[in-house]
Design brief:
Elements: H1 10-25, E1 35-39, E2 46-49, E3 65-68, H2 83-95, E4 101-105, H3 108-114, H4 126-129, E5 135-138, H5 147-156, E6 164-167, E7 171-176, H6 179-201, H7 211-223, H8 227-241
Parallel strand pairs: 5-6
Antiparallel strand pairs: 1-2, 1-4, 2-3, 4-7, 6-7
Helix pairs in contact: 1-8, 2-5, 3-6, 6-8
Length: 248
Amino acid sequence: MNAHANLTHWSERTDMAAAFRWTVKLNLHEAVANHFSLAVNPEGTRFLINPNGRHFGRITASSLVEIDANDPTTMDRPDAPDPTAWGLHGSIHRALPHARCVMHVHSMHATVLASLADSTLPPIDQNSAMFFNRHVVDDSYGGMAFAEEGARCAHMLADPKITTMVMGNHGVLIIGKTVAETFNRLTYFERAAETYIRALQTGRPLRVLSDAIAEKTAQEWEDYPGGADFHLREIKALLDEEGSTYGQ
C-alpha cells in the first residue's frame, strides 16, 4: 500500500504527475503557469488540478488538488487553485462531461501558430492530419482566462469531435478521455505545429493532403491500438528508472 493511501484516485494522480514531469523534459512548460486537470467523477465536475504556484517539475501525485467545478467556495479554500485555472478548467469541467482531461500550455510552436493571422493547422503530414476537422481556432482572445473567458472557451469546445483549441494570441488547449490520450495528443500537436512552422520558414509551397486522405488518416489515428497508453507507460518507466519523485 502506498504512503498516501488516504488519497483517492491514486492511479489517476500518478498518471497526471508523470505528464507534468515529462512536459518539463519536452520544454513545453512556462514558469509556474499553465494547468492540467482530470475529472474523477462520472459527471465530470470533480477534478484534479495542479496546486497554485507549483512548478511542473515538482508536481507529485499527492500534491494535486481535488476540487468541484460546482462549488462556489472553491477560491476561498487555503489550497485554492490559480484563478485562471479555476476560470478555464472549472468552466470546461462544469459544462462538458466528455472533456475528462484538459491540458493547457503556452508551448513554443503551438503559440507561434496561435500568433498567426490564420492559426489553422493544415494537414501537411501524418501528424498534422491527426487534427484535421478536430481543432478549432479561437480568434476572440479577451484577456486572461478568468470566469467569463473560460466560459466562452468552453462553449467553443461543445462538439465532442473537437479535441484541440488553438487559443489565438494565447496557446493551446487539448481535451481527451484519459491522461494518456490527452498528453499524447498534446505532444503530437506541438510536433505538428513545429513541422508546419518550419515548413512555412522555407518559403516554398506546402504539400497539403486532400480532405479525403486527411480525414481517413485522422480516423486511423483514432482507431490506432494502444499508442497513447504505451506512450504514457514508457514515460513512467523512464521516470522510474531515473528515480523521479512524481509518484510520491
